[in-house]
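quick one
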Amino acid sequence: ELPSYYKPWMDIALRVPELVLSHELRSCIHKMPLLSSQLLQRHRELRLAHLALSVMSMGYVWQEGENGTVQVLPRNLAVPFWEVSQRLGLPPILTHADAVLANWRKRDPDGPFDMQNLELLLSLPGGESTRGFFMVTLLVELAAVPSLRNIPIVINGVRSGDVEAVAKGLEEISESLQDMKDTLKLMQAHVEPSVFYGIMRIYLSGWKDNPCMPKGLVYEGVQTEPMEYSGGSAAQSSLLHCYDELLGVQHETESAFLFRMRNYMLPAHKQLIQDISRERPLRSFVQQQDNERLSQAFQLCVSKLLALRNYHITVVSRFVTVPAARARQLRDTGEASEMVSKAPTALEERGTGGSGIMSFLKTVRDETRDAYLPGSSKPS
Ligand code: HEM
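structure w/ protoporphyrin IX containing FE:
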């Protein structure tokens, strides 16, 4: 919880979904006092404040859909949002670090980390599907924990020439990548594609490369010129960036988007990726050793990362491409429901982070395939 001084923020932040639906959020925010961010001290307080301010900002900007956007974020929201963002090293917009990493609590503190025992701190419109979307993404992050723990083991093994340790570390990372993919499958059970497409997506969208906010957004009291920021996306999770650096996956084409997403991560997470990238290349170490188990462990890791990206493309097709085609069809025949007719058309071919979705994801997937060791057999 935040100190009681911040009650005016939390009172609104906790009610964002209902206030957006009743079209009252903007007027509530206009009445909100301008609070100092100085009473926020601990990292956790700053994270919760950033989450609260970002949820309010997304609701404020998108309350009236893509045709009723604003050009200015009012001072009483913009100034503390900017200050808290500066202190955390995050941009002043909803990020993966907010909506997923800092947005959960265990109902029973001694209970497990699972769907039943986890709840969101704050939400956005979309009801159970929004909860499912953030929670499943969090569970994917949790499934990745063993792999993250094994990255330093692999790196130390390369430094000391310990082939066994590197092979074992890579095998553990492969298992964890498999768990991530299996966990991603839960999205289907917990998120309704039409709700994701028609309701939720706009609240994750940003004001960079977005045709309905071509100039960006003025943060009143911060600077007079508008600023542009990309919307929230799991491309801002440090996980796949870490595996790419470890395995030597190189993103030549369209890499600007992925690199830019590193500026939407907590500085310590970005630093971890950079630290991994500065190590002696694992791929050439594996090639030099000419050890069957090691080569196989490396190939397995690449294949699991490839499979995760392939499955993710299927997910994106189910949640974006298919509903987009259906929405177009319904609009053309004049049968569109209110939800479909309000779905943001500016986002049709784009992800919430603003990328041209499928060609981008397929290029990234193909670049993952290029990391396979030549000549060594690939796992089926
Ligand atoms: C309904 C679920 C999901 C949808 C519709 C979705 C959609 C997208 C889209 C459209 C992009 C393109 C970049 C952008 O514009 O933001 C993207 C990128 C990305 N997403 Fe997801 N995503 C989903 C779930 C997840 C989850 C749970 C993860 C967790 C690992 C994830 C990881 C990534 C990564 C790492 C990228 C960057 C591309 C890459 O490195 O392969 N996504 N996603």
